[in-house]
Amino acid sequence: MATDEPFYLDGLLVCECSAAMRGGLWRQGRRYRCDRCGNVVDALGAEVEVWEVVTQERPEIGSGRTAYPNRGPILSRVLATVQMLNSGRFHPRWRKTVDGG
After folding, report:
1. Cross-strand partners of 30
2. DSSP helix/strand/coil, 6
3. CA torsion, points 36, 43, 12, 86, in degrees to nearest 10?
4. Hey, is 90 helix, strand or coil?
5. Which residues pair with 90 in a beta bridge?
6. Using the 8-state DSSP alphabet, how is residue 8 labeled?
7. pLDDT tens digits, residue range 58-72?
8. DSSP per residue over 13-64, as a string?
9. What is the Cα–Cα distance from 66 to 83, expressed in whole angstroms?
10. Model pTM greater than 0.85?
11. What DSSP designation does 91 have?
12. Which site among 1, 47, 78, 81 is 20 to 30 Å from 58 CA-CA?
């Protein structure tokens, strides 16, 4: 994967300290970093794991075959945030829909 791929969790990923994490390129590669506590997570790893968690919970959203550039817009429509937990896991917080879903 090229280093110029979009950071599709930008605006969605929230650190365990409750601050937003922003994507960027550092010496270590593509990462999401928390400006408050300095926590860093590998961007590709986070994006793949979040996509897997979301599509396991709601398979109608997509699959592993969904094109990488299409995932960000899909996630932005259905997720309010994605909380990074102390365990390194990710917990999606779904947007409320008109039908209460």
Report:
1. 25
2. coil
3. -60
4. strand
5. 84
6. T
7. 999 999 999 988 999
8. EE-TTS-BEEEEEETTEEEEEETTT--EEEHHHHHHHHHHHHHHH-GGG--T
9. 22
10. yes
11. E
12. 1
Q: Around Cβ 14, how many Cβ atoms within 10 Å?
A: 20
* C-alpha triplet 70, 74, 75: angle, nearest 5°: 115
DSSP at 100 = -
Q: Residue 101: what pLDDT?
A: 52
Mean pLDDT for each consecutive 10-residue tract of the chain (101 residues)?
72 96 88 94 94 96 93 94 92 77 52
pLDDT of residue 98: 46
Which amino acid is residue 36, in one-letter code? R
DSSP designation for 89: -
Q: What is the pLDDT of residue 96?
A: 84
Residue-level pLDDT at 1? 47
The CA-based diameter of the chain, rounded to the nearest angstrom, is: 45
Length of the chain: 101
